[in-house]
């Protein structure tokens, strides 16, 4: 019998979200070159998604971090090139869909 001691990351409470005026969107639906802040993660419903969220957190997709999608693959728009901090990562759309962001108001 396999039991997992690691729990899914807890979502950030709505009151802890910066700003509060702009709607949250998933990173995969953010328009190209629009700056946004990581606010939350989509709920992980499987062990695979839990592992994915942990990997995203380890590479820097944490609440408060500035992020932007700098390009998308062609054809099919997959993968996405995503800039966070001083690093750029290639994420598949299903991976990016796990990260919830709030577009910056001055964008």
TrEMBL record:
Residues 25-103 form the Ferrous iron transporter FeoA-like domain. The keyword Iron applies. Keywords: Iron. GO terms for molecular function: transition metal ion binding. It comes from the Bacteria. This is Iron transporter FeoA. It comes from Comamonas aquatica DA1877.
């Amino acid at each position: 019998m396999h039991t997992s001691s690691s729990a899914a990351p807890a979502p950030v409470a709505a009151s802890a979200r910066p700003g509060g005026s702009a709607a949250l969107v998933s990173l995969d639906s953010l328009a190209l070159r629009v700056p946004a802040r990581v606010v939350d993660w989509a709920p992980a419903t499987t062990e695979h998604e839990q592992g994915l969220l942990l990997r995203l957190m380890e590479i820097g997709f944490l609440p408060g971090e500035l992020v932007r999608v700098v390009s998308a693959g062609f054809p099919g728009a997959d993968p996405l090139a995503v800039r966070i901090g001083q690093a750029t990562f290639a994420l598949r759309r299903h991976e990016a869909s796990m990260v919830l962001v709030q577009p910056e108001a001055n964008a």
